[in-house]
């Protein structure tokens, strides 16, 4: 089965510093990878995706992610963190569901809480 | 206009009761989902519908019954509620079934079973 792992429960970074939220994946074919952000008491919001093409993907709110096939990673990055970036971040992967006749579903990692310190 | 809206936002009820959560999307998407987020923020898919047809049923107890009257609506009915059903339930939609279509989420329904 395809899956993603987010090795850090929480990441703390000072405002203005670069941030990285880590994600590694395990797939049997070519991966479709996503990052979502969840603010308190809200639903998840799509940030960016990697389907094919350039390994560096740019998304919303100044975030970007780098796809690294050799390391099976898709880390989320931002050059300069803002206090307002503090939220829960989810990495996700497309997966073929065994219970859906081959249709695809998106499976989420366990989430990483990002805390940006003023 | 809210793209994916679900009601109610909060639902507090007693064990054994039956309750429903409604979801509507105005994005013109073909596919809708229900996800459950537990107290540790783990997010797990429950159901997926495409053009009113059930596509994914992730071994959810049959006390949970989704209904899609049209492709813009996906409601969730829960019978005989149990303490373990307490969670936040998210409705979501995507343009189609292809896995590269981003998901658009509602703001969740926090269900508390006492």
Secondary structure tally, helices of chain B: 0
Approximate strand percentage of chain B? over 45%
Q: Which stretches of chain A are low in confidence, meaning pLDDT under 50 for 5 or more residues running? A: none
Chain oligomer state: heterodimer
Order of helices and strands of chain A: EEEEEEEEEEEE
The run of helices and strands of chain B is EEEEEEEEEEE
| Main sheet record of chain B | 7 strands, mixed
Backbone structural class of chain A? mainly beta
Give a quick precis of the structure.
The complex is a heterodimer of chains A (118) and B (114). Chain A is mostly beta strands. Chain A has no helices and 12 strands.
Protein model, in words:
The complex is a heterodimer of chains A (118) and B (114). Chain A is an all-beta fold. Chain A has no helices and twelve strands. In chain A, strands 2, 5, 6, 10, 11 and 12 form a six-stranded mixed beta sheet that branches. Chain A is globular. Chain A starts with a strand and ends with a strand. Chain B is mainly β and 114 residues long. Chain B contains no helices and eleven strands. Chain B has strands at residues 4-7, 10-13, 19-25, 31-37, 43-50, 53-57, 64-67, 75-78, 87-94, 104-105, 109-113. In chain B, strands 2, 4, 5, 6, 9, 10 and 11 form a seven-stranded mixed beta sheet that branches. A four-stranded antiparallel beta sheet of chain B has the order 1-3-8-7, with no helix packed on it. Chain B starts with a strand and ends with a strand. The A-B interface holds A 32, 34, 36, 38, 41-46, 49, 51, 88, 90, 94-95, 97, 99-101, 103-108, 110-111 and B 4, 40-45, 48, 50, 55-59, 90, 92, 97-100, 102-108.
